[in-house]
Amino acid sequence: MFESLSERLERSFKILKGEGSITEINVAETLKDVRKALLDADVNYKIAKQFTDTVKEKALGQDVLNSLKPSQLMVKIVHDELAGLMGGQSVDINLKGNPSVILMSGLQGSGKTTFSGKLASLLKNKRGKRPLLVACDVYRPAAIEQLKVLGEQLQVPVFSDTESKNPVAIAEAALKYARQHLHDVVIVDTAGRLAIDEMMMNEIAAIKKAIQPHEILFVVDSMTGQDAVNTAKEFNERLDFDGVILTKLDGDTRGGAALSIRSVVNKPIKFVGTGEKMDALDVFYPERMADRILGMGDIVSLVERAQEQYDEEEARRLQKKIAKNQFDFDDFISQIQQIKKMGNIKDLAAMIPGMGKALKDVEIDDNAFKGIEAIIHSMTPRERSNPSLLNGSRKQRIAKGSGTTIVEVNRLLKQFEQTSKMMKMATANPGKLKAMRRR
Q1: Residue 417: its pLDDT value, please?
Q2: Which residue has the higher pLDDT, 419 or 438?
Q3: pTM reported for the whole predicted model
Q4: Could you tell me which of 234, 214, 229 has the C-alpha nearest to residue 93?
C-alpha cells in the first residue's frame, strides 16, 4: 500500500545525506519534500502541513544540525510522528458485554460483510469466542446469502429473517436468540448505500438505539482515499463510532486514509484487511505501520504469524528426526504447508527489513510452491521417507508424473539436501551455523 510513499520519503532523506554541511535550509528542504510525498499519498493538506511543522520543530529542537548522522535522527523523528499520527498505540475492540454486541457501519462496497466474517473467524479461532453473525441488510439479497456462505465456511451460525424487511426487529430477535443459545459475541452486518443518505443514517441510528452495541465499527475501503476520511467524518457525527476498519490495504492505494483518518475523526484504526482470505485480517499497530512506511520491515508481526502456526509437539518431533538424520520429504512438505498458512509470500518477505524494496519489481506468485508440491506428491511414500532411493529412472518417472523436468527435480533434491544439512548443523551446533553465516 505505502510503496510509493516509502520511495518518496527515502528520496527526501537523501537530501540530508549529501557531502555538504547540514543546515536549517536543507532540513526545511527535506521536510518540504516529505510534505509533497504525503500530499501525493492523498493525505489531507492541513494534516500534512501540521505533521511537517511538528517534525521541523522537534528536529531543530533535537540538534539535528549538530548530529553526526542527521538523516538517521530525522528518520526517527518522522517515524515517531507517523506512529503518533496513526494513533500511537493499538486499541482492541470492546468485548465486555454478555453477549458483546458489535455493530458494523459503512458504505456499500466497503467490505462490511467480508469483514464481519473475518472478525467472527478471528474471535472464534484466536480468542475462543462463540460468535453469531446477523444479516440486517434487507435491501441487497446477495448480502444475506454472502453472509450465510461465509458462516458455513467458518462454521459460525448466521441469524437472518428473509420474511422481515425491518432490520431493527431482526437485530433485536438476533440478540434474544444469542442469549438463548449462549453466543458471547453478536456481529451485526448492516445495509450500506452508494452514498450517504438520510434514510440509511436514520435506520442504523435506530438499530443502535434498539440493541445498544458495546462497539460500533466503521468499515471503510482504503482505496477511496480522501473520500474515505470525509465519509468517516459524516458517519461519526451521527453514530459516534468506536473505531475504524480499513479494508483492501493490499490493493493499489496511496495510503492517505490510514494516515489522515485518525486525526480527522479522533477514533482509532482497530483492524486492517490485507487480502480476500478469511484470515487476512490484522490488528492495526501504528508503530509497526510506521516501520513499514519507512522501509524498516515488521519483524514482530512476522514472528507472531509464525507463532500462530507453531506446534510445539511437532517441533520437538522434527528436532529428533533432524538429530538422527531422518528429515525426509514428508517433513519438508509439512514445513511448506506451515509457511503457506502464514499468508502471501511477498507480504511475508516484505516484513524483513530491506526486503520490501528489494522485491519491489519481483513477482512472487502465491503458487510458488506448486511445482515443489507436485514433485513431492509424485514420489512414492517409500521415496519420500528415503530420498537416497531417487536414481535416474525414478527421477524421470517423478518429473513425468508432476509435469516438471528432470532439471527441476534435481534442483529440488539439491535444495532438500542443503536444507537438511543446515537444519542438522543448527540442531547440533548453533554456534557453528552462525560462524558459517558470517563467512
Answers
A1: 82
A2: 419
A3: 0.66
A4: 214
Q: Which of 31-35, 54-58, 304-308 has the lowest mean pLDDT?
A: 304-308
Identify any residues that bridge with 135 across adjacent strands, giving them in sequence order. Answer: 189
> To 10 degrees, what angle do helices 70-85 and 24-40 make?
40
Taking alpha carbons only, the member of 33, 53, 112, 106 closest to residue 261 is: 106
- List the domains of the chain with CATH numbers: 3-85 (1.20.120.140), 100-294 (3.40.50.300), 304-438 (1.10.260.30)
CA distances from 150 to 154, 158, 223 (A): 6, 9, 23
User: Cα dist. 357→6, 287, 349 in Å?
Assistant: 9, 19, 10
Reference 273, options 96, 57, 114, 64; nearest CA is: 114
Report DSSP letters for 162-220, one per residue. TT---HHHHHHHHHHHHHHTT-SEEEEEE---SS--HHHHHHHHHHHHHH--SEEEEEE
C-alpha cell at 417: 539436501
Cβ pair 83, 286 in contact under 8 A: yes
Average pLDDT of the chain is 77
Alpha-carbon gap, residue 43 to 45, rounded angstroms = 6
CA 96-99-102 angle, to 5 degrees, is: 75
For the purposes of burial, counting CB atoms within 10 Å of the CB of 194, is it exposed (0-12), middle (13-18) or buried (19 or more)? Answer: exposed
Residues 374, 402 contacting (CB under 8 angstroms): yes
